[in-house]
Amino acid sequence: MSFRQRIAALAVPFLLLALSACATGFPAQVQRFSAMPAPQGQSFFVQPADPDNRGGLEFSRYADHVRRNLIALGYVEAPSAEAASFVVEIDYGVDDGRERIVASPSPWSYGPGFRPFYSRWGYFGPRRHPFYWGWYDPWFDDPFGYDLRSYTVYTSFFDMEIRRTADGQALFEGVAQARSRTDELPVLVPNLIEAMFTGFPGNSGETVRITVAPERERR
Predict the structure, then answer these.
(1) pTM score, two decimals?
(2) Beta strand pairing status for 43-48 and 76-77?
(3) Are residues 18 and 88 in the same domain?
(4) Distance in angstroms (rounded) separating the CA atoms of residues 214 and 22
């Protein structure tokens, strides 16, 4: 069972990303357990948790993000898993989404039972009586003076496990999660990886909320 599956029962705070998240930052929740050694020339090799992704172009793109982060920390890439000090296994995905409904006060409503009263002689203010023209009936319009809007929220994840090659000992287990209004993995996964490596390896057992800066601010 993967680390992501083991913590699936934990409640995840609602991290709603606006469609303009690329401009305002990407909020994610990251949980990490670590026994990583300090970089001293150890080598690594990145491979997919799902063997079907091995050699895939999409996997290669995300593996390159992980590779560059580890090299920047002082580790060295190995040509194969057998030649590496430790193996880095990654997994990623996004669900099918859930519908959310948001209610906001209607600009035309004066509350339950109220509507501005208009007639050919002009505006006479809000009236309660049901026989006045303009009386507000929630059954024929928005309920209780609210406009209702719906949208889809997607939950994405990036899972990373690092094990020592010699004996299979776990050195790092981490998962980054986010909720967004997009399900595009090429947008989501690089941001989740950036969140995972922010302050890496972190305090073991700690869950943190991290907002990844827009890409233009990271250049």
Answers:
(1) 0.69
(2) parallel
(3) yes
(4) 6
For residue 1 the two structure tokens come to 């069972």
Q: Is residue 200 assigned to a domain?
A: yes
Q: Residue 155 pairs with which residues in a beta bridge? A: 179
Residue matched to tokens 């109220």: 114
Give the distance from CA 5 to its chain's centroid. 17
Q: Coil, strand or helix: which one is 20?
A: coil
Q: Furthest-apart CA pair in the chain: how many Å?
A: 89
25 and 117 assigned to the same domain: no
46-84 tens-digit pLDDT? 999 999 999 899 999 999 999 999 999 999 999 999 999
Distance between CA atoms of 133 and 29, rounded to whole angstroms?
A: 52
Dist. CA 100–CA 152, nearest whole Å: 6
